[in-house]
Amino acid sequence: MSSRWLVLASTAFLSLALCAPGTAQSSGEQKWVGTWASSQMLAEGFGAYPFAKATLREIVHVSNGGPRIRVRFTNEYGQDSLLIGSAHVAVSAGGAAIKDGTDHALTFGGASSVRIPQGAAIYSDPVELAVEPLSSLAVSIYIPAQIMRAETEHQLAMQDNYVADGDQTAAATLTDPSPLRSWYFLSGIDVPAVEGARAVIAFGDSITDGAVSTNNANHRWPDVLAARLKQERGLENVSVLNEGISGNRVVNESTGPSALSRIDRDILAQNGVRYLIVLESINDIGRLQRAFAPEDRVTAQTLEEGLKQIAEAAHQHGIKAFGATLTPYGGAGYSTPQGEQVREDVNNWIRTSGVFDGVVDFDQITRDPANPNKFNPAYDSGDHLHPNDAGYKAMAEGIDLSLFK
Question: 152-207 pLDDT, tens per residue?
Fold first, then answer.
């Protein structure tokens, strides 16, 4: 899947005379760094929405600011080409509204509409829009009636997005919008790479995705880390890109593609990446409770090899990889003594193997000192698997910022 995405995406980028993510640019071209990203999957179940003659207004919280931006749209899981009739970007005013005087139409090779091939992604032309660090943008997309047998989404946005009838991409606020809880056809935003600009990829599952955090509040641990970096001298231009997928597993597909199958797309193809934090494996371990298939019977060694593959791929591209220990899951619906032993073995390997350039010890930060296999009650969302807002904050505040210097 990854190599297919890159081939098709590269074709689309070249057709628009744009630069594919992660590739070298000539000295005369603008260099970019990612300021927001989401990891894509096939829309299924309630996420499969029959869009036709509709405007999507999608709200994203950026990390770095800049004087201009470009937006990346995707049709990775489409079975047909995707026609975007028009697209706009503006500074969000909250809800489905945009701030006066900030609306800008997006173009694609100078055209106001674009057809994205099946399996591909494209960038918009750069647009002059002053974006403040840690601000929220509204990206509006008009989807005309067309054959659409599959949609591409990021399922768990933890953010209210909106859909409304007709082309309302330039509207100050949408008329009769309905809420959406996913991001559709939208996978990234870049800003110009100023001196010191570089990106951190937060690569993981629902705990990186921000599950159970407060909706619309940007309280995921990558959000809190981004805010910390803005306050640290010399790290003000370091962005954080959240590439978490809820339900993700290292070696097998579950919700969305496996971690191993999305290395190229979600790490190596992102612009300006210098660092990677990997927090993966708890969903592989959770499957041990009900091993429906032989591949569900993972061992610590299986997971360690998968994590090693991720770190080595990063190293081959000059990216420092930091291993994050797995947070406690005692009392969660899929916890077992067998799984707890695997979790402890994987954590010990992350801390001692030397595979990673550094360790982020989320286990140490979030566990209950009296019951180390369980969350600290102050950080437990109640499901004994995901942190609450205080837990996500503690995770981000426990990261040693010297890792990024």
Answer: 999 999 999 999 999 999 999 999 999 999 999 999 999 999 999 999 999 999 99
Q: What is the sign, positive or negative, of the torsion defined by CA atoms of 16, 21, 26, 31?
A: positive
User: pTM surpassing 0.85?
Assistant: yes
Residue 231, amino acid: Q
What is the sign, positive or negative, of the torsion defined by CA atoms of 327, 389, 226, 241? Answer: positive
Q: Which single residue is written with the structure tokens 């193809």?
A: 269
pLDDT tens digits for 60-117?
A: 999 999 999 999 999 999 999 999 999 999 999 999 999 999 999 999 999 999 999 9
- Which pLDDT tens digit goes with each residue over 266-286? 999 999 999 999 999 999 999
343-382 residues labelled b (16+ CB within 10 A) or e (exposed) = bbebbebbeeeebbbbbbbbbebbbbeeeebbbbeebbbe
Contacts of residue 209, Cβ cutoff 8 Å, sequence gap at least 6: 156, 158, 220, 242, 244, 245, 246
d(CA 155, CA 206): 11
Q: Which amino acid is at 121?
A: A
What's the token pair of residue 230? 């803005």
Q: What one-letter code names the amino acid at 72? A: R
Question: How far is it, in rounded angstroms, from Cα 51 to Cα 146?
Answer: 9
Burial class (CB in 10 A: 0-12, 13-18, 19+), 228: middle
SS3 2: helix
CA-closest candidate to residue 117, choices 55, 73, 153: 73
Q: Are strands 152-154 and 320-324 parallel, antiparallel or unpaired?
A: unpaired
DSSP state of 19: P
At how many degrees (to 10) do helices 337-352 and 300-316 cross? 30
DSSP-derived 3-state class of residue 222:
helix
* C-alpha–C-alpha distance, residues 43 and 74, integer Å: 13
